[in-house]
């Protein structure tokens, strides 16, 4: 997690100028169509802090889409992760349920992450929905990354286990033992949880993971990006896998790193999702001669349309609206920007979604991009949750 003060976007300015966010709702996109910059949820104008942040989604087998985010509802005694649901390809969402803190008495606050079990695991059936996120009290005294599960498609939730403990305070200041940003990935009968941690006194912040074989007991911590220079601050790991090249890519922001100022987007490529630690980091340098993406990245892999079973990695960083694509081989010189017309955001989420055959999208897969707003946006700057759906791009070969 980092603090990146953003200038007001045109959208944010429009809201303030109009006085009421509700007046800004655009024409609602038609179901299963392509669209951009589609407002989904406007927080109360009096919501605290950033009002909203960190949108995360999951598509279920019935093609509905669940959505959560960091929510700053001023009326809630304890913070919680809202769960909203779309049955029209992300064009519109309605409130569906919420994930309350069931064990700490603190509230569920930061960085929700949604994941569906790809196989029966830990006594839960395939398709069980997991949510990992940071639970911390209002005074930020300490924190857990906690795991919740829903066996009924996100309607009801139960606490499963504590994954990581942060003795606190849960703030980004150096020397505070905070934990952030869980990311789940199933691998060979183990569930991996990647996260950022400030708990190790040898590092300002490092990226680590733990594994579990039963969802309840978690392994010792294994480091993935732990730099000897204690002034640098890698953060916000996400991981994608190409079944074509059998390569795993972890993207992260590298605050205070060797190139550029701010938090340039870096990545590691590994043959194992458990062995990023021994791999050298490198920056995403786009081949358009413009600035490298900076801050809160996200990465996915997908088949490339019409390319005979070959795929592309797609990455995103906060400072640029474009997405950055690379082939299965992840050539360091191969990152190419593509403009998809969607506002940038703090930790903007990328997801491939399936569409119904009898819909406007005719069963084609699409790229869903979810914005929770920008960190540093408070006061007269107004965050809200928005999304876009675009065609999966082809790798630019010219
Ligand atoms: C926001 O707070 C102000 C001042 O307390 C209050 O007058 C207003 O009704 C609140 N707005 C909403 C939408 O709750």
Automatic annotation (TrEMBL):
Keyword Signal tagged: yes
SUPFAM superfamilies: Arabinanase/levansucrase/invertase
Sorted UniProt keywords: Signal
Claim: Transit peptide is one of the keywords in the record: no
InterPro entries: Glyco_hydro_beta-prop_sf
Leader sequence residues: 1-19
Name assigned to this protein: BNR/Asp-box repeat domain protein
High-level lineage: Eukaryota, Fungi, Dikarya, Ascomycota, Pezizomycotina
């Amino acid at each position: 997690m980092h603090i990146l003060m953003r200038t007001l976007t045109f959208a944010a300015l429009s809201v303030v100028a109009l006085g009421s966010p509700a007046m800004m709702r655009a024409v609602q996109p038609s179901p299963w169509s392509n669209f951009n910059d589609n407002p989904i949820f406007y927080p109360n104008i009096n919501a605290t802090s950033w009002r909203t942040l960190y949108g995360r989604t999951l598509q279920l087998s019935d093609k509905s889409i669940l959505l959560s985010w960091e929510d700053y509802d001023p009326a809630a005694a304890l913070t919680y992760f809202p769960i909203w649901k779309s049955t029209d390809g992300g064009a519109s969402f309605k409130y569906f349920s919420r994930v309350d803190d069931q064990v700490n008495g603190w509230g569920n606050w930061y960085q929700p992450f949604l994941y569906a079990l790809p196989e029966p695991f830990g006594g839960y059936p395939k398709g069980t929905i997991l949510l990992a996120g940071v639970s911390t009290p209002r005074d930020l005294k300490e924190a857990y990354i906690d795991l919740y599960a829903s066996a009924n498609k996100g309607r009801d939730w139960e606490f499963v286990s504590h994954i990581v403990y942060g003795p606190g305070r849960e703030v980004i200041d150096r020397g505070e033992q905070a934990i952030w940003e869980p990311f789940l990935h199933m691998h060979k009968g183990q569930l991996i949880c990647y996260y950022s941690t400030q708990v190790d006194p040898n590092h300002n912040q490092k990226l680590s993971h733990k594994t579990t074989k039963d969802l309840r007991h978690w392994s010792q911590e294994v480091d993935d990006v732990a730099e000897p220079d204690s002034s640098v601050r890698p953060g916000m790991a996400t991981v994608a896998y190409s079944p074509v090249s059998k390569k795993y890519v972890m993207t992260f922001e590298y605050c205070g790193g060797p190139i550029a100022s701010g938090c340039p987007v870096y990545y590691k490529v590994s043959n194992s999702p458990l062995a990023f630690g021994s791999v050298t980091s490198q920056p995403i340098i786009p081949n358009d001669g413009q600035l490298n993406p900076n801050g809160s990245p996200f990465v996915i892999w997908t088949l490339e349309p019409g390319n005979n079973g070959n795929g592309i990695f797609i990455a995103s960083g906060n400072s640029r609206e474009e997405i950055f694509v690379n082939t299965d081989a992840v050539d360091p010189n191969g990152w190419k920007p593509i403009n998809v017309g969607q506002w940038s955001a703090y930790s903007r989420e990328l997801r491939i979604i399936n569409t119904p055959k009898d819909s406007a999208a005719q069963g084609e897969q699409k790229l869903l991009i979810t914005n929770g707003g920008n960190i540093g946006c408070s006061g007269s700057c107004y965050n809200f949750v928005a999304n876009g759906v675009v065609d999966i791009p082809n790798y630019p070969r010219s």
